[in-house]
Write a structure and sequence with these properties.
The chain has 380 residues and is α/β, with parallel strands linked by helices. 34% of the residues lie in helices and 19% in strands. The chain is built from twelve helices and 13 strands. The chain has helices at 12-25, 30-40, 42-45, 52-62, 108-117, 144-157, 182-193, 217-231, 243-246, 255-272, 294-299, 362-372; strands at residues 6-7, 46-47, 122-124, 128-129, 133-138, 170-175, 201-204, 235-241, 275-281, 302-307, 310-316, 325-336, 342-350. A nine-stranded mixed sheet has the order 7-6-8-9-5-10-11-12-13, with helices on both faces. A two-stranded parallel sheet has the order 1-2. Strands 3-4 form a two-stranded antiparallel sheet. Helix 2 (30-40) crosses helix 4 (52-62). The radius of gyration is 24 Å and the shape is elongated.
């Protein structure tokens, strides 16, 4: 692009537009692309030079007319790996994967066929589907990470989970909140299940910023690719534990900021074909579900609540919602550390169905409290 000149009256705006789009193809946001142009291009190539604010407004106004997704040509993005039916198969009318880097269309008859044969790809039947996004949430100390790790273990070992079929593969577990303390949880799973071979589960015990797409997204995709090469398997599940720790400088209560995070999750899903799970916290009002902007729930395919020894699927975009399932935390004694301290951790033992209690708003609880004190009042 070094020879591109943005001369007013000689298609200068089109040249600028082209350069902004190309920078976006490599993953730069509108503001970052403008910074790059201002530093390396427009002082010598644009005549007259753009005013910074005017150029930024121009760049942001172009976002809705992009031909391809942000970062589609990034060397680490791997958008060509979107899962789908192989092109060229005899009798197949499925759109070739190459066309899915951008918008695509499919004929009526293919949509009808996919309703029964092309949409359901269970990872854990009844709970998680391949390539989708889920949120597992609950209050602190309810066992969210233990449940998420139990899912991960069974996917990594391709073993049925609580009697439900698993179509497993490599798991990437980003322990952004636990850090190195996740090791005790892993050791507890090892002691509890005693797998014959080490599970295909790679742990990333690091803080990861996915709010800023130019921070760690490309690096995380590179780590996933390296883990795939190490294990010789494609990623089936990527767990981000917790949402707050991968949110970077974003505000989880702001719809725009939550949308930025969801955008990064979508890029992980598209680049790897893996199901991506966010482990999250409940809001102050449990009746309203997970903490933060409702933009998260709108983008979520599966929502799972962990509360009081129970696993409840609260949202399932496709398919029926399974019954609530109870579990208990089992303490595992891991032995004594070099410092002479006893080391313990927990695993889950899933079992019978469980009845979740009614979820009331703060206003409803204030109203119901006096009634609960009376002999004839409701017991909450």
């Amino acid at each position: 692009e070094d020879s591109a000149d943005g001369i007013e009256g000689c298609s200068g705006r089109e040249v600028t537009k082209h350069l902004l789009f190309r920078l976006g193809d490599f993953g730069l946001s509108a503001s970052k692309a403008v910074d790059v142009l201002c530093e390396h291009w427009h002082a010598e190539k644009a005549s007259p030079p753009w005013d910074y604010d005017e150029l930024l407004d121009f760049a942001e106004g172009l976002e809705g007319s992009r031909e391809g997704p942000l970062g589609c040509d990034h060397p680490l993005a791997g958008f060509s790996r979107v899962d789908g039916v192989e092109s060229g198969a005899e009798g197949s009318t499925t759109t070739p994967p190459e066309a899915r880097k951008r918008l695509f269309w499919r004929p009526w008859e293919e949509s009808v066929d996919r309703a029964l044969n092309g949409t359901s790809r269970p990872l854990i039947k009844g709970y998680l589907d391949k390539g989708e996004m889920s949120v597992m949430y609950g209050e602190s100390n309810t066992g969210k990470t233990c449940v998420a790790l139990d899912f991960a273990y069974h996917i990594a070992t391709n073993r049925p989970w609580n009697g439900r079929a698993v179509d497993g593969g490599l798991v990437i577990y980003v322990a952004a909140e636990a850090g190195e303390s996740i090791n005790a949880r892993i050791a507890a799973l090892q002691a509890h299940y005693s797998p014959a071979q080490p599970p295909a589960l790679a742990v990333v015990p690091c803080l990861v910023d996915l709010y800023n797409p130019n921070a760690h997204l490309a690096e995380l995709l590179e780590l996933i690719a390296k883990a795939e090469g190490h294990y010789g398997k494609k990623a089936a599940l990527v767990v981000l534990d917790t949402l707050a720790r991968v949110m970077g400088g974003g505000d989880e209560n702001a719809a725009k900021d939550m949308g930025m995070l969801v955008g990064s999750v979508d890029k992980i899903r598209v680049a790897t074909g893996a199901h991506t799970m966010l482990v999250h916290h409940s809001g102050k009002n449990k009746a309203n579900g997970a903490r933060g902007s409702s933009a998260l729930r709108a983008a979520t395919d599966t929502e799972i609540e962990i509360e009081g020894g129970g696993i409840r699927v609260k949202k399932q975009r496709s398919g029926e919602i399974v019954k609530d399932l109870g579990f208990r935390l089992r303490v595992i004694d891991l032995g004594t550390s070099k410092a002479g301290d006893s080391v313990t951790s927990c695993v889950i033992e899933a079992g019978a169905t469980v009845a979740f209690g009614p979820q009331l708003t703060h206003e409803q609880r204030d109203w119901a409290a006096p009634l609960a004190e009376r002999p004839w009042g409701p017991r909450w």
